[in-house]
Amino acid sequence: MVKTQIDTQYEAVIGLEVHAQLKTASKIFCGCSTKFGAGPNSQTCPICLGMPGVLPVLNRRVLEMAVKTGLALHCKISPYSRFARKNYFYPDLPKGYQISQYELPLCEQGYLETAVNGRIKRIGIHRAHMEEDAGKNLHEGLEAASHVDLNRAGVPLLEIVSEPDIRSIDEAVAYLKTLRDILVYLDVCDGNMEEGSLRCEPNLSLRPVGQKEFGTRVELKNINSFRFVQKAMEYELRRQEKVLREGGRIAQETRLWNTEKEITVVMRSKEEAHDYRYFPEPDLVPLMIPEDLIEEVRNGLPELPDAKRERFVREYEIPIYDAEVLTISKDLAHYFEACVAIYPQPKTVSNWIMTELLRELNNSGQEIADCPIPPERFAGLLKLIEDGTISGKIAKTVFEEMYRTGRSPEEIVKEKGLVQISDAGAIEVLIEDVLAAHPNERESYRQGKTQLLGFFVGQVMKRSQGKANPGKVNELLKKKLSA
Amino acid sequence: MDPTQLTIHELHGQLKNHKTTSRALTRLILDRIKSVEPKIHAYTTVTPEAAMAQAEAADQWLQSGRPAHPLTGIPIALKDNLCTQGIRTTCSSKILENFIPPYNATVVRRLNEAGAVFIGKTNMDEFAMGSSTENSAFGLTANPWDVSRIPGGSSGGSAAAVAADACISALGSDTGGSIRQPAAMCGVVGLKPTYGRVSRYGLVAFASSLDQIGPIAKNVTDCALMMNAISGHDSYDSTSAEIPVPDFARALDRNLTGMRIGIPKEYFIDGMDSEVLHAVKEAIRVMEKLGAKTQDVFLPHTEYAIATYYILATAEASSNLARYDGVKYGHRAKPTKDLLEMYMKTRQDGFGPEVKRRIMLGTYALSSGYYDAYYRKAQCVRTLIKSDFDEAFKQVDLIVTPTAPTAAFKIGEKTQDPLQMYLSDIFTISVNIAGIPALSMPCGFTKAGLPIGLQIMGRPFAEETILHAAYAFEQATEWHKRKPNI
């Protein structure tokens, strides 16, 4: 059900096409570098320039990464697969066709699981196939001319097409995030959306709630940043709802997202759709993928976010939400497990990571890999709380100091004299001072206003600069007040 | 004897023994070109300076006494669809009139390493589409045996140059008969190797699943020597086979005892030229005398070959020729008001009528709604044609047929009727569809003095068997010794 903006009368049906740039050093069909940001056309050769007479040769790493991703997405890896030509004219497409896959793609019938509002949703993967990227047309700063940069032409992509199983924008966003996590986990894509390493083309339709048939779908293109995916989908669903509400019909078309105006506009109608005249690529032999290669890749797969999440819930008995957060990145999950290994109280560790650590990382804009607190010290801090050396409140201050300076908790506690006061005599001295300073409140308490206990505890804690053991303070105060 | 009339192996002996030099030979060839080119126009580009420089280097090598490749110092012509670094490669098309490749085709690199001397680029039907070399943007090539006739095509320039001694040997390409048919028309030997035997890297593609580079030579031995130099797997061509390459020259043997030769009745059709029929039947008798056993074989899907070919080849061509869009290299129409007009005018001006016809046919065959009826159906028939050959080759080692239904026809005779032109490849096309090797060699002459071609087909990667039979036949006959009077 669509929750945001859309009236509950309609239900959204969304499918996502994601292009992930595979992290190979060289291009898919030639030896040119794939590095981002080099001077225009500096990373080209006769092959990726589409010179007459050249032939493509498949980069083996592309196939391995594609198989790896397919397996991680629970896809069937086709034992026999082949490339096809997608024919169309555009200046950034040097051969006049893109080498892609059409019939017989490499990966089919998979799925991905993602947590949406605390529930696990399974979204089908229709197919995933290898293809080459096109170049880039440059118009800026050129009067009455356009230039073409072919550095990107021939960069390997994996196109991952979901089933139309997505029913809300929240689900779409969750799917994209999880997919990105998986690709980064697998080390097959850097996940960098700003540089275009990950691009998304959604197709969306609405249907009355309860109706089985899908409505007419619209494809969105030109969403060149992940930030805009959500906005573009929200706009498009609102637009479609308005049309339907006013009794209109949705036209089957491709629409372009306009980043400046934040609207979608018609690019081409169904009638104007390209006829790509796909046919098997005769310059590349069909791919026979031996079972042992698939097994080899399967055995080399790292534990994936969803498996890890399930294991965390099972093994550490933490809530799904915690497990979801902790498995967002491989490094964070690793950090959690390293801490738990030293301090085996998973929920406490999880709480501290999710609140204190993630806040500090977020504030400083750092990744977990840059965290100045090694797991031993993180666990050490939690031990200091457990054995009563410091209070939880003091521990937060110590944590901030640890993050800032990278020093050990013991050192900080010792230097700043933050050791918790548990000695009854010392606490009693503080209590005496507080009671003497607040005779009226003491009187009220005696007359039955026992809720003032909290006030006294607060005052004692304040006087101890937070160092007094709160449990002890409570116990001794009660005794003293009722004496 | 005039050295230009000699073969590779004869000249190799002279060069090795310092009886002549590559420079002298190259100069003679350049002179010969000067004298015959006005009559036949076999070349689009002749490169005297580069050739002389290569000849000089070859001579130094030969002088040094180091072991020389049989091709060292030998003047070779290259069909103008083979990319040559720094030398324009036009495909006889206006659209590539000024295209200078930044790289060498693999076959060019291999010949270079063997020390061959490149004399020039030969004329062809534009993008190898044609059977008469009349579809060249730079003028037609005439047959050295009768300059009022076509030399065959599309490698007409290579075949005419070899026949006219305007080079010692040449490379052509064969998509539907483009090596064999002109070899037949010009009375020389041409071999289309098995698909995958020779790297296609640097061959400007016409129909990728059918194209294959091969030699056009004065005799069978030269053909084998050229094959030795150009064959073998290439990491730049995924479709080149990782199959060991034998020494083809060692396969040459005069004895055909035990060789089983199939005669397919589908290739001896009604209305076929009687002189061609007679010459081929006579050739079969010669082979029998040499010890071969002949028998009938059946290739029942032969009648669908031309239709299948013109769907598959044009479909691939429509895609292969999309890159000539005026954006990166080659001809660009100007001035134009927008991108679409630039594309349209560039291709309108740049391509000749036959190329446009095939692009349109191929585009149509691949279009949504027609793909299944045409392209997919043609692929199915392709499988049937291939299995016809598989079946036949269970019974025989070779299949012998005429190369073309007639000898060379008159210039202009078929240009108004594309279908008649397509039919001149009727005996050569199935070989490309099946991917098998086949050779054409002279087996007689018409009363008018025009050469007649004999085609010998073999199993995949059995070029040795073909060359063996061809050599035996050649040694038993005198046809290859005749020279055109030009």
Quick summary of this structure?
The complex is a heterodimer of chains A (about 475) and B (about 475). Chain A has about 475 residues and is α+β, with helices and mostly antiparallel strands. Chain A is built from 15 helices and 16 strands.
Largest beta sheet: strand ordering of chain A: 2-6-7-10-1-11-12-13-14
What is the CATH topology assignment of chain B?
Amidase signature (AS) enzymes
Unreliable runs of chain A? 1-7
Number of helices of chain A: 15
The helix count of chain B comes to 15
Number of domains as seen in the coordinates of chain B: 1
Which series of helices and strands of chain B comes N to C?
HHEHEHEHEHEEHEHEHHHHEHHEEH
CATH C-level name of chain B = Alpha Beta
The secondary-structure class of chain B comes to: alpha/beta
Low-confidence stretches of chain B: none
Oligomer: heterodimer
**Would you tell me the overall average pLDDT of chain A?**
89
What is the helix content of chain A?
25-40%
Structure classification of chain A: alpha+beta
